[in-house]
Amino acid sequence: CGIGRVDCSVIEKHGDCYEPDTIWSHASFAFNVYYHTNGNNRIACYFGGTATLTKINPSYGTCSYDVSK
Predict the structure, then answer these.
(1) Which of 16, 38, 47, 56 is surrounded by the fewest CB atoms within 10 Å?
(2) Where is the X8 domain (predicted)?
(3) Cβ contacts of 2 within 8 Å, gap of 6 or more
Protein backbone atom coordinates (compact mmCIF):
# COMPACT_ATOMS: atom_id res chain seq x y z
CA CYS A 1 0.00 0.00 0.00
CA GLY A 2 1.72 3.14 -1.11
CA ILE A 3 5.02 4.25 0.35
CA GLY A 4 5.29 1.42 2.91
CA ARG A 5 5.39 -1.17 0.12
CA VAL A 6 3.36 -3.74 2.01
CA ASP A 7 0.84 -6.15 0.49
CA CYS A 8 -2.63 -4.75 1.03
CA SER A 9 -4.42 -7.01 -1.46
CA VAL A 10 -6.49 -8.56 1.35
CA ILE A 11 -8.21 -5.21 2.04
CA GLU A 12 -9.07 -4.70 -1.61
CA LYS A 13 -12.52 -5.65 -2.90
CA HIS A 14 -13.10 -9.43 -2.57
CA GLY A 15 -10.08 -9.77 -0.24
CA ASP A 16 -10.34 -11.65 3.07
CA CYS A 17 -10.22 -8.39 5.07
CA TYR A 18 -12.22 -6.11 2.76
CA GLU A 19 -15.34 -6.29 4.96
CA PRO A 20 -16.15 -4.24 6.86
CA ASP A 21 -15.40 -1.69 4.16
CA THR A 22 -14.45 1.13 6.52
CA ILE A 23 -11.46 3.43 6.78
CA TRP A 24 -10.92 2.26 10.38
CA SER A 25 -10.83 -1.43 9.46
CA HIS A 26 -8.62 -1.00 6.38
CA ALA A 27 -6.23 1.35 8.21
CA SER A 28 -6.01 -1.08 11.13
CA PHE A 29 -4.96 -3.89 8.82
CA ALA A 30 -2.51 -1.74 6.82
CA PHE A 31 -0.90 -0.33 9.99
CA ASN A 32 -0.51 -3.87 11.35
CA VAL A 33 1.14 -5.18 8.18
CA TYR A 34 3.46 -2.16 8.07
CA TYR A 35 4.41 -2.64 11.73
CA HIS A 36 5.31 -6.30 11.27
CA THR A 37 7.09 -5.72 7.96
CA ASN A 38 9.25 -3.04 9.58
CA GLY A 39 10.60 -4.82 12.61
CA ASN A 40 7.82 -4.92 15.22
CA ASN A 41 9.15 -1.88 17.05
CA ARG A 42 7.50 1.29 18.35
CA ILE A 43 9.13 3.41 15.64
CA ALA A 44 7.31 1.29 13.03
CA CYS A 45 4.05 2.06 14.85
CA TYR A 46 4.19 5.84 14.70
CA PHE A 47 1.30 7.05 12.56
CA GLY A 48 0.82 10.53 14.00
CA GLY A 49 -1.30 9.33 16.90
CA THR A 50 -3.74 7.32 14.76
CA ALA A 51 -2.50 3.87 15.86
CA THR A 52 -1.61 2.12 19.08
CA LEU A 53 0.00 -1.16 20.07
CA THR A 54 -2.34 -3.79 21.48
CA LYS A 55 -2.09 -7.30 22.87
CA ILE A 56 -5.52 -8.23 21.51
CA ASN A 57 -5.51 -10.17 18.24
CA PRO A 58 -7.89 -8.27 15.92
CA SER A 59 -8.30 -11.19 13.46
CA TYR A 60 -11.89 -12.10 12.56
CA GLY A 61 -13.54 -14.64 10.28
CA THR A 62 -11.20 -15.25 7.34
CA CYS A 63 -9.25 -12.04 8.04
CA SER A 64 -6.00 -12.99 9.73
CA TYR A 65 -3.71 -10.34 11.22
CA ASP A 66 -0.02 -10.98 11.87
CA VAL A 67 0.56 -11.00 15.61
CA SER A 68 3.71 -10.61 17.71
CA LYS A 69 4.74 -13.58 19.75
Answers:
(1) 56
(2) 1-65
(3) none
